[in-house]
Amino acid sequence: MTKIINDYLFDESAFDYHDAAFKALIRPDTKRRALKIPAILKADKVEGGTIYYTIHAQVGETRILDGKATRTWGYNGSLLGPLIQYESGKHYHLTLVNELPEVTTWHWHGLNIPGPIEDGGPHAPVQPGESKEIEFDVHQPTMTAWLHPHPCPHTAEQVWRGLAAPVTVVNPLDNLPQLPHDWGIDDIPVIFQDRTFHDNQWDYQADYDMDGTLGDTALVNGTANAEFTVTRPWLRLRVLNGANRRELRLNTDKNIVMTQIASDGGFLPHAVPLTKIMLTTAERAELLLDLSAYKKGDQLLLKADDTVILTLTVGEFTEDNRVELPSKLKEIDRGFTGGVDHQVIMSGMDDAVKINGKLYDMTRIDDRQEIGKNEIWDVSNTNDDMPGMGMIHPFHMHGMEFLVLSRNGKEPYPNELGYKDTIAVNPGEHVRLLVEFNVAGIFMYHCHILEHEDTGMMAQIEVFDPKHPKHWNLKDLCAKNGVDSMAANMKM
Ligand code: C2O
Ligand code: CU
Ligand code: CU
Protein backbone atom coordinates (compact mmCIF):
# COMPACT_ATOMS: atom_id res chain seq x y z
CA MET A 1 0.00 0.00 0.00
CA THR A 2 1.25 3.46 -0.80
CA LYS A 3 1.73 5.76 2.10
CA ILE A 4 -0.87 8.45 2.62
CA ILE A 5 0.69 11.88 2.83
CA ASN A 6 -0.87 13.91 5.59
CA ASP A 7 1.23 17.04 5.76
CA TYR A 8 1.73 19.87 3.31
CA LEU A 9 5.24 18.66 2.44
CA PHE A 10 6.57 22.20 2.71
CA ASP A 11 8.51 23.82 5.49
CA GLU A 12 5.88 25.37 7.75
CA SER A 13 8.06 28.33 8.66
CA ALA A 14 8.12 29.46 5.06
CA PHE A 15 4.35 29.75 4.97
CA ASP A 16 2.97 33.22 4.80
CA TYR A 17 1.66 33.24 8.39
CA HIS A 18 4.68 35.19 9.59
CA ASP A 19 4.06 38.04 7.17
CA ALA A 20 2.91 41.14 8.98
CA ALA A 21 0.51 41.81 6.12
CA PHE A 22 -0.93 38.28 6.20
CA LYS A 23 -4.72 38.26 6.09
CA ALA A 24 -6.43 35.12 7.31
CA LEU A 25 -9.44 33.97 5.34
CA ILE A 26 -12.87 34.46 6.86
CA ARG A 27 -16.06 32.72 5.84
CA PRO A 28 -18.24 35.37 4.24
CA ASP A 29 -21.44 36.36 5.92
CA THR A 30 -23.59 35.59 2.91
CA LYS A 31 -25.98 32.83 2.04
CA ARG A 32 -24.65 29.64 0.57
CA ARG A 33 -24.74 29.69 -3.22
CA ALA A 34 -24.46 26.93 -5.78
CA LEU A 35 -20.89 26.64 -7.05
CA LYS A 36 -20.68 28.33 -10.42
CA ILE A 37 -19.51 26.03 -13.19
CA PRO A 38 -17.97 27.81 -16.16
CA ALA A 39 -19.87 27.08 -19.37
CA ILE A 40 -18.00 25.25 -22.12
CA LEU A 41 -16.94 27.65 -24.88
CA LYS A 42 -18.56 26.73 -28.18
CA ALA A 43 -16.54 26.96 -31.37
CA ASP A 44 -17.70 29.66 -33.81
CA LYS A 45 -17.12 27.17 -36.58
CA VAL A 46 -14.96 24.29 -37.67
CA GLU A 47 -13.58 24.76 -41.14
CA GLY A 48 -10.94 22.82 -43.06
CA GLY A 49 -9.70 21.16 -39.87
CA THR A 50 -9.39 24.49 -38.02
CA ILE A 51 -11.43 25.24 -34.90
CA TYR A 52 -12.44 28.89 -34.42
CA TYR A 53 -12.98 30.48 -31.01
CA THR A 54 -13.71 34.10 -30.06
CA ILE A 55 -12.85 35.44 -26.62
CA HIS A 56 -13.95 38.87 -25.45
CA ALA A 57 -12.34 40.53 -22.42
CA GLN A 58 -15.13 42.61 -20.96
CA VAL A 59 -16.44 44.62 -18.04
CA GLY A 60 -19.53 43.57 -16.12
CA GLU A 61 -21.29 43.06 -12.81
CA THR A 62 -21.58 39.86 -10.81
CA ARG A 63 -23.75 38.97 -7.86
CA ILE A 64 -21.29 37.47 -5.39
CA LEU A 65 -22.49 38.58 -1.96
CA ASP A 66 -26.00 39.40 -0.75
CA GLY A 67 -26.98 42.91 -1.76
CA LYS A 68 -25.23 44.96 -4.41
CA ALA A 69 -23.55 43.30 -7.36
CA THR A 70 -19.77 43.56 -7.68
CA ARG A 71 -18.15 45.30 -10.65
CA THR A 72 -15.95 42.63 -12.23
CA TRP A 73 -14.07 41.76 -15.42
CA GLY A 74 -14.39 38.53 -17.31
CA TYR A 75 -14.02 36.63 -20.57
CA ASN A 76 -17.28 36.24 -22.53
CA GLY A 77 -19.11 37.07 -19.33
CA SER A 78 -18.83 39.25 -16.28
CA LEU A 79 -16.40 37.18 -14.20
CA LEU A 80 -13.68 34.61 -14.96
CA GLY A 81 -14.53 32.84 -18.21
CA PRO A 82 -15.78 29.74 -19.96
CA LEU A 83 -13.91 26.46 -20.16
CA ILE A 84 -11.76 26.56 -23.28
CA GLN A 85 -11.17 23.03 -24.51
CA TYR A 86 -8.33 22.04 -26.81
CA GLU A 87 -7.70 18.71 -28.39
CA SER A 88 -4.14 17.71 -29.04
CA GLY A 89 -3.28 17.43 -32.72
CA LYS A 90 -5.79 20.08 -33.79
CA HIS A 91 -5.32 23.57 -35.24
CA TYR A 92 -6.99 26.59 -33.62
CA HIS A 93 -7.83 30.08 -34.74
CA LEU A 94 -8.66 32.58 -32.01
CA THR A 95 -10.16 36.04 -32.21
CA LEU A 96 -9.26 38.05 -29.11
CA VAL A 97 -11.47 41.08 -28.56
CA ASN A 98 -10.51 43.73 -26.02
CA GLU A 99 -13.59 45.54 -24.70
CA LEU A 100 -11.77 46.73 -21.58
CA PRO A 101 -10.82 50.37 -21.01
CA GLU A 102 -7.11 49.42 -21.12
CA VAL A 103 -4.58 47.26 -22.94
CA THR A 104 -4.55 43.55 -22.15
CA THR A 105 -3.09 40.25 -23.42
CA TRP A 106 -4.32 36.64 -23.54
CA HIS A 107 -1.73 34.35 -21.95
CA TRP A 108 -2.22 30.60 -22.26
CA HIS A 109 -0.59 29.43 -19.06
CA GLY A 110 0.42 25.83 -19.65
CA LEU A 111 -0.02 25.72 -23.43
CA ASN A 112 3.20 25.15 -25.30
CA ILE A 113 2.66 27.41 -28.27
CA PRO A 114 5.08 29.84 -29.97
CA GLY A 115 6.13 33.02 -28.20
CA PRO A 116 5.91 35.83 -27.70
CA ILE A 117 2.71 36.50 -29.69
CA GLU A 118 0.56 33.35 -29.54
CA ASP A 119 1.75 32.66 -25.98
CA GLY A 120 0.24 36.01 -25.06
CA GLY A 121 2.84 37.48 -22.73
CA PRO A 122 3.59 41.22 -22.45
CA HIS A 123 4.75 41.40 -26.10
CA ALA A 124 1.27 40.58 -27.40
CA PRO A 125 -0.86 43.58 -26.42
CA VAL A 126 -4.37 44.14 -27.73
CA GLN A 127 -5.42 47.76 -27.42
CA PRO A 128 -8.81 48.73 -25.99
CA GLY A 129 -11.50 48.51 -28.65
CA GLU A 130 -9.33 46.35 -30.89
CA SER A 131 -9.14 42.70 -31.69
CA LYS A 132 -6.40 40.38 -32.81
CA GLU A 133 -6.29 36.97 -34.43
CA ILE A 134 -3.87 34.21 -33.62
CA GLU A 135 -3.47 30.64 -34.82
CA PHE A 136 -1.65 27.70 -33.34
CA ASP A 137 -1.45 23.92 -33.13
CA VAL A 138 -1.87 22.12 -29.84
CA HIS A 139 0.41 19.15 -29.17
CA GLN A 140 0.21 18.19 -25.54
CA PRO A 141 -0.86 15.53 -23.12
CA THR A 142 -4.22 15.62 -21.39
CA MET A 143 -3.95 18.42 -18.82
CA THR A 144 -5.49 21.41 -17.06
CA ALA A 145 -4.17 24.85 -18.00
CA TRP A 146 -5.61 28.34 -17.73
CA LEU A 147 -5.96 31.66 -19.44
CA HIS A 148 -5.09 34.97 -17.81
CA PRO A 149 -3.97 38.46 -18.88
CA HIS A 150 -0.25 39.30 -18.89
CA PRO A 151 0.22 42.98 -19.79
CA CYS A 152 3.30 44.60 -18.32
CA PRO A 153 2.92 45.86 -15.60
CA HIS A 154 -0.80 45.30 -14.90
CA THR A 155 -1.17 41.54 -14.78
CA ALA A 156 -1.95 41.49 -11.07
CA GLU A 157 -4.65 44.13 -11.23
CA GLN A 158 -6.39 42.58 -14.24
CA VAL A 159 -6.42 39.13 -12.68
CA TRP A 160 -7.71 40.70 -9.44
CA ARG A 161 -10.57 42.29 -11.36
CA GLY A 162 -11.65 38.85 -12.53
CA LEU A 163 -9.84 37.85 -15.71
CA ALA A 164 -8.98 34.14 -15.63
CA ALA A 165 -10.50 31.10 -17.32
CA PRO A 166 -10.07 27.34 -17.17
CA VAL A 167 -8.44 25.56 -20.10
CA THR A 168 -8.15 21.84 -20.72
CA VAL A 169 -6.26 19.80 -23.26
CA VAL A 170 -7.45 16.36 -24.18
CA ASN A 171 -5.05 14.01 -25.90
CA PRO A 172 -6.77 10.81 -26.96
CA LEU A 173 -3.44 8.94 -26.80
CA ASP A 174 -2.77 9.95 -23.26
CA ASN A 175 -6.21 9.73 -21.78
CA LEU A 176 -7.44 7.46 -19.06
CA PRO A 177 -10.94 7.29 -20.51
CA GLN A 178 -12.52 5.78 -17.45
CA LEU A 179 -11.82 8.86 -15.32
CA PRO A 180 -14.72 11.16 -14.48
CA HIS A 181 -15.03 13.60 -17.37
CA ASP A 182 -18.55 15.04 -17.29
CA TRP A 183 -17.91 18.75 -16.80
CA GLY A 184 -19.87 20.16 -13.90
CA ILE A 185 -21.15 16.72 -12.83
CA ASP A 186 -18.16 14.64 -11.83
CA ASP A 187 -15.36 16.74 -13.39
CA ILE A 188 -15.36 19.97 -11.41
CA PRO A 189 -13.17 23.06 -11.67
CA VAL A 190 -12.09 24.51 -8.33
CA ILE A 191 -10.59 27.91 -9.14
CA PHE A 192 -9.43 29.33 -5.83
CA GLN A 193 -9.04 33.08 -5.36
CA ASP A 194 -9.23 35.56 -2.48
CA ARG A 195 -10.68 39.07 -2.51
CA THR A 196 -11.60 41.75 0.00
CA PHE A 197 -14.98 43.39 -0.44
CA HIS A 198 -15.46 47.11 0.17
CA ASP A 199 -19.19 47.66 0.30
CA ASN A 200 -19.47 44.67 -2.06
CA GLN A 201 -16.82 46.08 -4.44
CA TRP A 202 -13.20 45.15 -5.12
CA ASP A 203 -10.59 47.87 -4.82
CA TYR A 204 -7.19 46.74 -6.02
CA GLN A 205 -5.38 49.97 -5.13
CA ALA A 206 -6.76 49.94 -1.58
CA ASP A 207 -5.71 46.35 -0.98
CA TYR A 208 -2.46 46.45 -2.97
CA ASP A 209 0.51 44.80 -1.32
CA MET A 210 3.87 44.79 -3.05
CA ASP A 211 4.52 41.27 -1.74
CA GLY A 212 1.29 40.03 -3.25
CA THR A 213 -2.23 41.23 -2.68
CA LEU A 214 -4.35 39.16 -0.31
CA GLY A 215 -8.10 39.20 0.21
CA ASP A 216 -9.97 37.98 3.26
CA THR A 217 -12.77 36.19 1.41
CA ALA A 218 -12.22 32.94 -0.45
CA LEU A 219 -13.94 32.47 -3.78
CA VAL A 220 -14.25 29.25 -5.74
CA ASN A 221 -15.10 29.85 -9.40
CA GLY A 222 -16.11 33.34 -8.30
CA THR A 223 -18.61 31.94 -5.79
CA ALA A 224 -18.45 32.94 -2.11
CA ASN A 225 -19.65 30.34 0.39
CA ALA A 226 -20.04 27.84 -2.44
CA GLU A 227 -21.92 24.56 -2.31
CA PHE A 228 -21.82 21.71 -4.80
CA THR A 229 -24.31 18.85 -4.89
CA VAL A 230 -22.60 15.53 -5.51
CA THR A 231 -24.47 13.02 -7.68
CA ARG A 232 -21.72 10.52 -8.46
CA PRO A 233 -19.47 8.81 -5.94
CA TRP A 234 -16.21 9.78 -7.67
CA LEU A 235 -15.38 13.43 -8.07
CA ARG A 236 -12.50 14.72 -10.14
CA LEU A 237 -11.58 18.16 -8.85
CA ARG A 238 -9.41 20.30 -11.11
CA VAL A 239 -7.92 22.63 -8.54
CA LEU A 240 -6.22 25.81 -9.72
CA ASN A 241 -4.70 28.32 -7.35
CA GLY A 242 -5.75 31.45 -9.21
CA ALA A 243 -4.86 33.82 -6.38
CA ASN A 244 -2.46 36.72 -6.84
CA ARG A 245 -0.33 35.65 -3.92
CA ARG A 246 -2.01 33.38 -1.40
CA GLU A 247 -0.76 29.83 -1.03
CA LEU A 248 -3.67 27.40 -1.04
CA ARG A 249 -3.37 24.82 1.72
CA LEU A 250 -6.28 22.58 0.87
CA ASN A 251 -7.69 20.12 3.40
CA THR A 252 -11.08 18.72 4.41
CA ASP A 253 -12.98 18.64 7.70
CA LYS A 254 -12.95 14.82 7.67
CA ASN A 255 -9.34 14.44 6.53
CA ILE A 256 -10.45 12.21 3.72
CA VAL A 257 -7.92 10.82 1.29
CA MET A 258 -7.75 12.79 -1.92
CA THR A 259 -5.90 11.03 -4.70
CA GLN A 260 -3.78 13.35 -6.81
CA ILE A 261 -3.65 12.05 -10.37
CA ALA A 262 -2.31 15.07 -12.25
CA SER A 263 -0.21 18.18 -11.72
CA ASP A 264 0.24 21.23 -13.97
CA GLY A 265 1.33 19.36 -17.09
CA GLY A 266 -0.85 16.26 -16.94
CA PHE A 267 -0.97 12.89 -15.26
CA LEU A 268 1.54 11.92 -12.58
CA PRO A 269 3.44 8.68 -13.12
CA HIS A 270 1.55 7.22 -10.14
CA ALA A 271 -1.43 8.44 -8.16
CA VAL A 272 -0.52 10.09 -4.85
CA PRO A 273 -2.94 9.70 -1.93
CA LEU A 274 -2.95 12.69 0.40
CA THR A 275 -5.13 14.46 2.93
CA LYS A 276 -3.52 17.88 2.54
CA ILE A 277 -2.09 19.60 -0.47
CA MET A 278 -0.42 22.94 -0.94
CA LEU A 279 -0.63 24.75 -4.24
CA THR A 280 1.21 28.00 -4.76
CA THR A 281 -0.17 30.50 -7.23
CA ALA A 282 -0.86 29.12 -10.72
CA GLU A 283 -0.20 25.50 -9.73
CA ARG A 284 -2.85 22.93 -10.64
CA ALA A 285 -3.75 19.54 -9.23
CA GLU A 286 -6.37 17.04 -10.28
CA LEU A 287 -7.75 15.22 -7.25
CA LEU A 288 -10.04 12.19 -7.14
CA LEU A 289 -12.39 12.04 -4.16
CA ASP A 290 -14.28 8.87 -3.35
CA LEU A 291 -17.55 9.75 -1.61
CA SER A 292 -19.20 6.35 -2.06
CA ALA A 293 -19.39 5.81 1.69
CA TYR A 294 -21.49 8.97 2.09
CA LYS A 295 -25.26 9.04 2.38
CA LYS A 296 -27.72 11.54 1.05
CA GLY A 297 -27.42 14.80 2.98
CA ASP A 298 -23.88 14.13 4.22
CA GLN A 299 -21.43 16.96 3.79
CA LEU A 300 -17.74 17.25 3.22
CA LEU A 301 -16.14 20.64 3.78
CA LEU A 302 -13.19 21.70 1.66
CA LYS A 303 -11.01 24.15 3.51
CA ALA A 304 -8.17 26.55 2.82
CA ASP A 305 -6.25 26.67 6.09
CA ASP A 306 -9.09 26.63 8.63
CA THR A 307 -11.69 28.31 6.47
CA VAL A 308 -14.38 26.47 4.54
CA ILE A 309 -14.25 27.39 0.86
CA LEU A 310 -16.56 24.78 -0.65
CA THR A 311 -19.25 22.54 0.82
CA LEU A 312 -19.81 19.25 -0.97
CA THR A 313 -23.32 18.04 -0.18
CA VAL A 314 -24.23 14.52 -1.21
CA GLY A 315 -27.47 14.28 -3.15
CA GLU A 316 -28.76 11.14 -4.81
CA PHE A 317 -26.09 9.02 -6.50
CA THR A 318 -27.45 8.53 -10.00
CA GLU A 319 -24.62 6.47 -11.43
CA ASP A 320 -21.59 4.64 -10.06
CA ASN A 321 -18.60 6.09 -11.86
CA ARG A 322 -15.87 4.38 -9.84
CA VAL A 323 -13.26 2.31 -11.66
CA GLU A 324 -10.00 0.67 -10.73
CA LEU A 325 -7.21 3.22 -11.07
CA PRO A 326 -4.21 1.72 -12.92
CA SER A 327 -1.08 1.54 -10.78
CA LYS A 328 0.82 3.43 -13.47
CA LEU A 329 -0.92 6.47 -14.91
CA LYS A 330 1.84 7.59 -17.22
CA GLU A 331 5.31 6.57 -18.31
CA ILE A 332 7.71 9.40 -17.44
CA ASP A 333 11.46 9.03 -17.84
CA ARG A 334 13.21 11.17 -15.24
CA GLY A 335 16.60 9.55 -15.68
CA PHE A 336 18.63 12.50 -16.85
CA THR A 337 21.90 13.65 -15.38
CA GLY A 338 24.19 16.48 -16.29
CA GLY A 339 25.56 19.79 -15.17
CA VAL A 340 23.62 22.98 -14.70
CA ASP A 341 23.09 24.88 -17.95
CA HIS A 342 20.99 27.77 -16.60
CA GLN A 343 20.89 29.54 -13.23
CA VAL A 344 17.93 31.47 -11.90
CA ILE A 345 18.37 33.22 -8.57
CA MET A 346 15.18 34.66 -7.14
CA SER A 347 15.98 37.22 -4.49
CA GLY A 348 14.34 39.87 -2.38
CA MET A 349 10.91 40.73 -1.11
CA ASP A 350 8.74 43.85 -1.44
CA ASP A 351 10.26 46.33 -3.89
CA ALA A 352 13.63 44.58 -3.86
CA VAL A 353 12.57 41.48 -5.82
CA LYS A 354 14.91 40.45 -8.63
CA ILE A 355 15.84 37.59 -10.92
CA ASN A 356 19.59 37.13 -11.24
CA GLY A 357 20.01 40.57 -9.70
CA LYS A 358 17.96 42.30 -12.39
CA LEU A 359 14.51 43.72 -12.94
CA TYR A 360 12.55 42.79 -16.05
CA ASP A 361 13.39 44.61 -19.25
CA MET A 362 11.21 43.83 -22.26
CA THR A 363 14.02 44.68 -24.68
CA ARG A 364 16.62 42.41 -23.07
CA ILE A 365 17.04 38.71 -23.79
CA ASP A 366 18.24 37.18 -20.55
CA ASP A 367 18.97 33.65 -21.65
CA ARG A 368 18.93 31.37 -24.69
CA GLN A 369 18.20 27.70 -25.23
CA GLU A 370 18.09 25.62 -28.38
CA ILE A 371 14.81 24.06 -29.39
CA GLY A 372 14.61 20.31 -28.81
CA LYS A 373 17.52 20.15 -26.36
CA ASN A 374 17.25 18.93 -22.78
CA GLU A 375 18.96 21.35 -20.42
CA ILE A 376 19.13 21.65 -16.65
CA TRP A 377 17.96 24.75 -14.86
CA ASP A 378 18.89 25.46 -11.27
CA VAL A 379 16.33 27.72 -9.63
CA SER A 380 17.00 29.09 -6.16
CA ASN A 381 15.44 31.44 -3.64
CA THR A 382 17.87 33.41 -1.51
CA ASN A 383 15.30 34.83 0.96
CA ASP A 384 16.85 32.83 3.76
CA ASP A 385 19.11 35.30 5.52
CA MET A 386 16.96 35.17 8.67
CA PRO A 387 15.71 31.84 10.02
CA GLY A 388 11.95 31.45 9.66
CA MET A 389 11.77 34.50 7.42
CA GLY A 390 11.59 34.90 3.70
CA MET A 391 8.83 33.76 1.43
CA ILE A 392 8.13 31.12 -1.16
CA HIS A 393 8.53 32.34 -4.72
CA PRO A 394 6.47 30.21 -7.13
CA PHE A 395 8.64 29.96 -10.25
CA HIS A 396 6.88 29.71 -13.61
CA MET A 397 8.16 29.21 -17.14
CA HIS A 398 6.26 29.76 -20.37
CA GLY A 399 6.54 27.63 -23.48
CA MET A 400 7.00 24.12 -22.10
CA GLU A 401 6.37 21.78 -19.19
CA PHE A 402 9.42 20.78 -17.15
CA LEU A 403 10.35 17.86 -14.93
CA VAL A 404 11.57 18.47 -11.40
CA LEU A 405 14.83 16.55 -10.97
CA SER A 406 15.59 17.47 -7.37
CA ARG A 407 14.98 19.75 -4.39
CA ASN A 408 18.19 20.62 -2.60
CA GLY A 409 19.79 17.52 -4.06
CA LYS A 410 16.97 15.26 -2.83
CA GLU A 411 14.06 13.62 -4.62
CA PRO A 412 11.27 16.10 -5.22
CA TYR A 413 7.97 15.55 -3.37
CA PRO A 414 5.93 12.57 -4.60
CA ASN A 415 3.36 14.82 -6.28
CA GLU A 416 6.10 16.65 -8.21
CA LEU A 417 7.14 13.67 -10.32
CA GLY A 418 5.04 14.65 -13.33
CA TYR A 419 5.29 17.55 -15.76
CA LYS A 420 4.88 21.04 -14.32
CA ASP A 421 5.21 24.67 -15.32
CA THR A 422 5.11 26.30 -11.90
CA ILE A 423 7.08 25.19 -8.86
CA ALA A 424 7.24 26.47 -5.31
CA VAL A 425 10.77 27.36 -4.25
CA ASN A 426 11.25 27.74 -0.50
CA PRO A 427 13.72 30.21 1.01
CA GLY A 428 17.19 28.70 0.80
CA GLU A 429 16.20 26.02 -1.70
CA HIS A 430 17.65 24.99 -5.02
CA VAL A 431 15.29 23.22 -7.36
CA ARG A 432 16.68 21.51 -10.46
CA LEU A 433 14.50 21.39 -13.52
CA LEU A 434 14.81 19.48 -16.76
CA VAL A 435 13.70 21.81 -19.53
CA GLU A 436 13.02 21.06 -23.17
CA PHE A 437 11.25 23.47 -25.51
CA ASN A 438 9.50 22.21 -28.60
CA VAL A 439 8.41 25.60 -29.87
CA ALA A 440 10.62 28.59 -30.63
CA GLY A 441 10.31 32.24 -29.69
CA ILE A 442 10.61 34.58 -26.76
CA PHE A 443 9.18 33.28 -23.48
CA MET A 444 8.83 34.70 -19.97
CA TYR A 445 9.98 33.07 -16.78
CA HIS A 446 9.04 34.69 -13.51
CA CYS A 447 7.75 34.57 -9.99
CA HIS A 448 3.99 33.91 -10.13
CA ILE A 449 3.22 36.14 -7.18
CA LEU A 450 1.62 38.55 -9.60
CA GLU A 451 2.76 41.71 -7.80
CA HIS A 452 6.35 40.43 -7.85
CA GLU A 453 6.00 39.79 -11.57
CA ASP A 454 4.65 43.30 -12.17
CA THR A 455 7.43 44.84 -10.09
CA GLY A 456 9.90 43.13 -12.41
CA MET A 457 10.67 39.68 -10.96
CA MET A 458 10.58 38.36 -14.51
CA ALA A 459 13.04 37.57 -17.29
CA GLN A 460 12.83 36.24 -20.82
CA ILE A 461 14.48 33.53 -22.83
CA GLU A 462 14.97 33.16 -26.55
CA VAL A 463 14.32 29.63 -27.68
CA PHE A 464 16.13 29.38 -31.00
CA ASP A 465 16.03 27.00 -33.89
CA PRO A 466 19.46 27.01 -35.60
CA LYS A 467 17.77 26.02 -38.87
CA HIS A 468 15.57 29.11 -38.75
CA PRO A 469 17.56 31.88 -37.05
CA LYS A 470 15.58 34.95 -36.11
CA HIS A 471 16.42 38.47 -35.18
CA TRP A 472 14.32 40.00 -32.45
CA ASN A 473 13.61 43.66 -32.10
CA LEU A 474 11.81 43.78 -28.79
CA LYS A 475 9.95 46.87 -27.70
CA ASP A 476 9.52 48.19 -24.21
CA LEU A 477 5.79 48.31 -23.65
CA CYS A 478 6.02 48.38 -19.83
CA ALA A 479 7.11 51.98 -19.88
CA LYS A 480 4.35 52.88 -22.30
CA ASN A 481 1.66 51.05 -20.35
CA GLY A 482 2.44 52.16 -16.87
CA VAL A 483 5.79 53.91 -16.30
CA ASP A 484 6.90 51.59 -13.54
CA SER A 485 4.59 49.16 -11.94
CA MET A 486 5.07 50.23 -8.38
CA ALA A 487 4.29 53.83 -9.10
CA ALA A 488 1.32 52.70 -11.17
CA ASN A 489 -0.04 50.46 -8.47
CA MET A 490 0.57 52.91 -5.69
CA LYS A 491 -1.42 55.61 -7.50
CA MET A 492 -4.33 56.35 -5.21
CU1 C2O B 1 0.53 32.44 -15.47
CU2 C2O B 1 3.66 34.37 -17.14
O1 C2O B 1 2.05 33.44 -16.33
CU1 CU C 1 2.46 31.24 -18.11
CU1 CU D 1 8.07 36.22 -5.65
From TrEMBL:
- Taxonomically, which superkingdom? Bacteria
**Annotated SUPFAM superfamilies:** Cupredoxins
**Entry's Pfam families?**
Cu-oxidase_2 (PF07731), Cu-oxidase_3 (PF07732)
- InterPro entries in alphabetical order: Cu-oxidase-like_N (IPR011707), Cu-oxidase_C (IPR011706), Cu-oxidase_fam (IPR045087), Cu_oxidase_CS (IPR033138), Cu_oxidase_Cu_BS (IPR002355), Cupredoxin (IPR008972)
Q: What are the alphabetically sorted keywords of the record?
A: Metal-binding, Oxidoreductase
Please indicate if the UniProt record lists Acyltransferase as a keyword.
no
One annotated GO molecular function is: copper ion binding
All copies of domain Plastocyanin-like, residue ranges = 60-171, 346-463
The answer to keyword Metal-binding applying to this record is yes
Q: Which PROSITE patterns match?
A: MULTICOPPER_OXIDASE1, MULTICOPPER_OXIDASE2
Family of the protein in this entry: Belongs to the multicopper oxidase family.
Q: What is this protein called?
A: Copper oxidase
Instruction: Tell me which species this is from.
Output: Oenococcus sicerae
Q: In the record, what lineage is assigned to the organism producing the protein?
A: Bacteria, Bacillati, Bacillota, Bacilli, Lactobacillales
